[in-house]
């Protein structure tokens, strides 16, 4: 009889133990399900908020099938426009960076286009500084002018408000960059070497121009470093905890012609490529005054070599059935692998 009582007590004790184990797990799963549903809704809302289709833009004639199919995990290109927005003014594309992403190779390539580059402004019938294309015809003219210059399709555009992108840096928890030389800008001191930056510091870091021995080229390289660092932080698992802040900052400061479905496919299938970015550089051109205005004149050989590199990375040479062009060392293109 006593043995039966002891057995019943043990069973009751076990049931209590299991209750205290199972109940927290169930509560955790319920909270997780609510969080996932909430974040899904937040992500879709942000994707809809930043989506802006390019009106009257036809499929690119630089690609055989016109439009890249992201759902098939094919290489694509994106033009990153850092826009200096002003009151009562269309603004200028202060930053123009082209990025190609190849999921098969697990790599991306990034090149800055000097904003003073003298080139044909597509749709305007004239030559001018490439960053004026945005002022003349918005995102569409900037995309088409960049396509013509590099002779590659520009599949997508990401437009960032440079005045407010510091919010994005703060949202990902700050970034780390490698500074080539010490300098001061907007009240901040930036020592040489690896440094951490918050949003305001990052903005001052990329704005500095006149103290840089490389002038605007040095500024472009700092811009690419900051963008690469934001991408690296953005795809890290730690950023899940900062999701709301990131989504709010992106919703306020970013616009793109990439749909939610395409963003979802890129996040799922292109993450490894976004983590390995190779930097390409335009640096062999010359500055010249034309009709009293300073322009940057591209070195034609360097331009052709970089164009070929981007085409090969986009698999366009294979698409056309052409053997990829050999890499031309004389063009002085350098890579900075992360």
TrEMBL record:
Keywords, in A-Z order: Membrane, Transmembrane, Transmembrane helix
Stretches assigned to the Cell envelope-related transcriptional attenuator domain: 92-233
Native source organism of the sequence: Chryseomicrobium palamuruense
Superkingdom per UniProt: Bacteria
Gene3D superfamilies: LCP protein
Protein family (similarity comment): Belongs to the LytR/CpsA/Psr (LCP) family.
The protein's name: LCP family protein
Transmembrane domains' residue ranges: 20-40
